Amino acid sequence: MEELLESFKAYIVAELPLYLTASTEEVPLPDLSTSNIVIGDCDIAKHSAANTLFINPDSISFSDLSISDYEQSLSLDLLMVCRNSAPEILYKKVLRYGKALKDLFIADLNLAGIGTIDIKSGDYFDGMEGNSSIKAFMLSCEIVW
Q: What is the CATH number of the domain that holds 104?
């Protein structure tokens, strides 16, 4: 599972910039780098960059395909957290990062061969940890490989 998550992170770093430029006319969205995409450590206070994507694995399940092969499904949440701007800008940023991620996944459901992604839901959070100057958007997904 660790290899899958690291490949998924590298995929987002490589492919997301195209989708960010498409939605950043009046509110620029900086590209995400490996340093501001965090896997499995959703500590918002510790990771305090202006724009951070948290990849939080949840549960894994297995399905038999044959006697010697099986399919794995990983449920995970992608939490995009933005801070250090005016609240009306943060609102636009988190929604646009969420849309860019959704558009990326819809355009390439196979994630360049990593696995098949299915987006389950999206949620907006106004004021993370009781702080109105930290906003977030979460995509709940499942990757099958």
A: 3.30.2000
Structural domains in the chain (count): 1
**pTM, to two decimals:** 0.91
Report, in angstroms and rounded to the nearest whole number, the Rg of the chain calculated over CA atoms: 16
**Distance from first CA to last CA of the chain, Å, rounded?**
10
Residue range of the domain that includes 101: 2-144
| Stretch (H or E) spanning 35 | none
In the β-sheet with 51-64, what is the strand arrangement from edge to edge? 37-39, 51-64, 70-83, 131-144, 116-128
Residues forming a β-bridge with 22: none
- Whole-number pLDDT of residue 100: 96
Give the Cα separation of 131 and 66 in Å (integer).
50
- Segments of the chain scoring below 70 in pLDDT: 23-25
Looking at residue 64, its pLDDT comes to: 80
- Which residue is listed with tokens 């992170």? 9
